[in-house]
Amino acid sequence: MILKDPSLSDNPNLDCRATYEPDKEPALPIMLPVSECLRRCPNYEGSHVNVLSQWIGPLVGFLLPALAFVISIPRSIRLPRGESLFGARKLKSIPYFLVAIFLMMFDVIFWIITVFAFAGPLIAGATHEALIDHAVLDYAEKALATEPEIALMAVTFSLIGSLKPDKGDMAGKVSAYIVESPHAKRKLQALLSLLPSYGARVGVPIVFYVGAYFYAIFDASAKRGDNDTAHAVAFGLWYGVVVIVAIVSSSVLGVDNPASLEAVFSENVPTNLDPNGPRTSNPLPVRTHTHPYHFHDSHFHTVWMWKRARVFQEWTKYFPLDPLIGSKINSVTPRIVSGLLASILVALPCAGACWISYQTPEIGFGCRSVAHLIYATSQMVLIGAWWTYYSSGFRIRETHHQQRLTLTSIPTYAISAVAVLAAVVSAIGGTIMQLVGVFRNCLCKASLQYLLPKNRWQGTVNLANDTQAHRDHAKWWIIVGSIGVGFIGLVSLVGWGYQARIRSRCRRIIEGL
């Protein structure tokens, strides 16, 4: 540029590393052809340890709080850590402690990848469970005065319907030790009180996430020329998908810890409110079998959140539910509604993140915005596969042991596998590349339309920071980021209100039995 215009040699605004200052003129754009940029810098610019906005922002501000959300999401299996070995002698327990730490870290990483990969089906499954709970409690309220037995079975199903009915003879024990028990009302009250509160599961992580995000937006307003800060805001909004998964999964009514149900099965409870009063003599059902890979120490099995639609369908075969309740469970309407809601809840944060990265100069679909787009598309595909799988008339009619591959299930599995791979690569791979700095290369700065060599002759890369284009488009970082965090905050309030209301309704029905 100086060779073409020597007068620019003394211009203070010609600075590749200019930083934003309100009373300072924006830097002049310094353009370089894409082919020349690739010739001089064929690799990427790694993140610098002393430049905190390049890696510490998304890592501490959003990724670490996401771990707290991931841990609160119910799951079925975990890696066994051999806790019994911690009671051995020191020479044996200390080395195994290191092994246990490695297993724990691997287990957490596996669960993070799983939540990112299956966020759409997780949200769809939890939303479907919430809709079923609402419909079942509606029916229980109507039947409470005239048919209390049906209301009792409906409330019982709403609490334990998330567990497998055929494992550990769950359906038979529920009928014998709850529905037919003279202490059914008191047991249901105890079971409801054992459910963890919304605040205990996700309340504190939400506060930290929202606080960190508001700080990132405030920081972005003070660093309008810093692309790394803008992309940190985009990635923080993208991680909001995990926050929404935790919010929705914490709002449902079903039991997540089956071990607490075993204590409720016991008939050894007071026959009146006097704790010293007479007790019955029926013992707690004997535990028959547990598995080291089960997340909870119980012979009753939990299921993945996305599989609960299938478990609800199985309960209609194992448990004497009213036919009208069975028709509500097998109805296609809740699955359609939950699929649409899940699509919206996933699409909005991803769209906001994609828009922020798209509007960060150079304008266009760069590596980050394409990663957001691929992830959102993969989740839409997985939500569609979830709906197709659990809306199959064949799978509704047959039991789990009779399932086999069909003409529709084979392409569903194949498309789902591709979508899962795309979700993992875009989410986990995209996060690692953002932290390491792989996205800071010539092609990602210029946009991916110049990916093919034949298109690079007309492409340019802007090497300057804090140009007028940066300042003009920085408003989108703040506006879209603020709307995004407001949306996630609204979802958290709706989840909190729904959980409080559904538990209050359940408590009133139990007291009316």
UniProtKB/TrEMBL annotation:
<feature type="transmembrane region" description="Helical">
    <location>
        <begin position="336"/>
        <end position="358"/>
    </location>
</feature>
<feature type="transmembrane region" description="Helical">
    <location>
        <begin position="370"/>
        <end position="390"/>
    </location>
</feature>
<feature type="transmembrane region" description="Helical">
    <location>
        <begin position="410"/>
        <end position="439"/>
    </location>
</feature>
<feature type="transmembrane region" description="Helical">
    <location>
        <begin position="94"/>
        <end position="119"/>
    </location>
</feature>
<protein>
    <submittedName>
        <fullName>Uncharacterized protein</fullName>
    </submittedName>
</protein>
<feature type="transmembrane region" description="Helical">
    <location>
        <begin position="476"/>
        <end position="498"/>
    </location>
</feature>
<keyword id="KW-0812">Transmembrane</keyword>
<feature type="transmembrane region" description="Helical">
    <location>
        <begin position="55"/>
        <end position="73"/>
    </location>
</feature>
<keyword id="KW-1133">Transmembrane helix</keyword>
<keyword id="KW-0472">Membrane</keyword>
<feature type="transmembrane region" description="Helical">
    <location>
        <begin position="230"/>
        <end position="253"/>
    </location>
</feature>
<feature type="transmembrane region" description="Helical">
    <location>
        <begin position="198"/>
        <end position="218"/>
    </location>
</feature>
